[in-house]
Amino acid sequence: MVIIIRNAQVYQPEYAGKKDLLILGDQIAALGENLQAEFNGAVSVTEIDGTGMVLTPGFIDSHEHIMGGGGEGGFSTRTPEAVLTDLTMNGITTVVGCIGTDGITRDMAALLAKAHGLEEEGVTTYVYTGSYQVPVHTLTGSVMKDVMLLDKVIGAGEIAISDHRSSQPTFEEFVRIVSDVRVGGMLAGKAGIVNIHLGDSPRLMDLIWRTVRETEIPYTQFLPTHVNRNEALFQSAAEFAKAGGVIDFTGNEDIDYWESICDEVRVCSGIRRLLESGVSENNFTISSDGQGSLPVFNSKGEYQGIGIGKASCLLKEVRECVEREDIPLETALRAVTANPARILKLGKKGRLQPGCDADLCLLTEDGLKLYTVIAKGKIMVQEGKPVVRGTFEK
């Protein structure tokens, strides 16, 4: 396909002014003013008027339960898997799938199959190997083999610590997982990131801190998530980010409710506090925990109720950063575009510049509402509605 988007306010995610953008096939071919594409009628050119619109890279969701999650309230609370429009209708063009508490009925074979299915439908999909459990449940029998030999596997996770649902890994077990993932990533040219689930325990990030202090493993090998789960955890994570680590906020579509029952830190407020404390705008991301189970436990660890994570929270969190905390749009966008692309070594993702993948979103300037989504050069959402493609072609 050949697509020209004209007169949009372009964020690469850095603001680049009003420009045109040319897409050839699945890549961005040019970015500039008054772009022209002439093919003597041999190829049709689709033009999209971006006047009054903001053009951004497609969103990268670095933590989503694409095949659903195991419900901690019994089998009836298992959460449903993601469908294509859960992603595209929320601006997500790249997703990293993971397994959470249930590493038994949700296994790596099923996760990879789901990832390949979403890829065939039009969005770029990667996965982490493993789940909460230690030893890690892999496909090949080895964490390092999974990372090295399975193309879609870019790291391990979500490995659970400081949580009553984790396997309570020892320091030695934890370090071995991280080192194997790191070396496997180095040998395969991948990020080799370990996505760490952080729970409510007062131990917070102790295992991560001890690893970087007592071994040669760097801060950047970890992507701890749910860092805004509570105030104490957020403060520990902020110190980790100041020291050079990267941290991942979990978006929350229902934050007003959760703030009423716990001290969860609102994403936009947490990002503002990080920036004010001197943390680099490159050292944090936002993910959705989409389709994951969001259980509520009492002080005794007894199950009280459950919710479901929603991919829609990514755009909502970007919008709140701008509207509630006056954070520059380009800074908020980094958390769902350029930052996860760099941290996860996703190559041509996360930026709007020639040679990058044609993954992008058009948002209205007024209210930042989703208007158009293009993934791998194909229009997936047009005028706020999903583009339906037939299953069979003649």
UniProtKB/TrEMBL annotation:
InterPro entries for this protein: Amidohydro-rel (IPR006680), Metal-dep_hydrolase_composite (IPR011059), Metal_Hydrolase (IPR032466), Metallo-dep_Hydrolases_sf (IPR050378), Pept_M38_dipep (IPR010229)
Cofactor note text: Binds 2 Zn(2+) ions per subunit.
E.C. numbers: 3.4.19.-
Keywords (A to Z) from UniProt: Hydrolase, Metal-binding, Metalloprotease, Protease, Zinc
Listed cofactors: Zn(2+)
Residues of the Amidohydrolase-related domain: 270-379
Residues that bind Zn(2+) 1: H63, H65, D289
MF annotations from Gene Ontology: beta-aspartyl-peptidase activity; hydrolase activity, acting on carbon-nitrogen (but not peptide) bonds; metal ion binding; metallopeptidase activity
Keyword Nucleotidyltransferase: no
Gene Ontology, cellular component aspect: cytoplasm
Residues engaged in binding Zn(2+) 2: H197, H226
Record has Protease as a keyword: yes
Residues that bind substrate: G70, G71, E72, T101, Y132, R165, R229, S293
BP term (GO), one: proteolysis
Active site (catalytic residues): D289 (proton acceptor)
Post-translational modification: Carboxylation allows a single lysine to coordinate two zinc ions.
A Pfam family reported for this protein in Swiss-Prot or TrEMBL: Amidohydro_1
The organism's place on the tree of life at top rank: Bacteria
Chief subcellular location: cytoplasm
Subcellular location: Cytoplasm
Matches recorded under PANTHER family: COLLAPSIN RESPONSE MEDIATOR PROTEIN, HYDRANTOINASE/DIHYDROPYRIMIDINASE FAMILY MEMBER
General function of this protein: Catalyzes the hydrolytic cleavage of a subset of L-isoaspartyl (L-beta-aspartyl) dipeptides. Used to degrade proteins damaged by L-isoaspartyl residues formation.
Family: Belongs to the peptidase M38 family.
Identification of the protein by name: Isoaspartyl dipeptidase
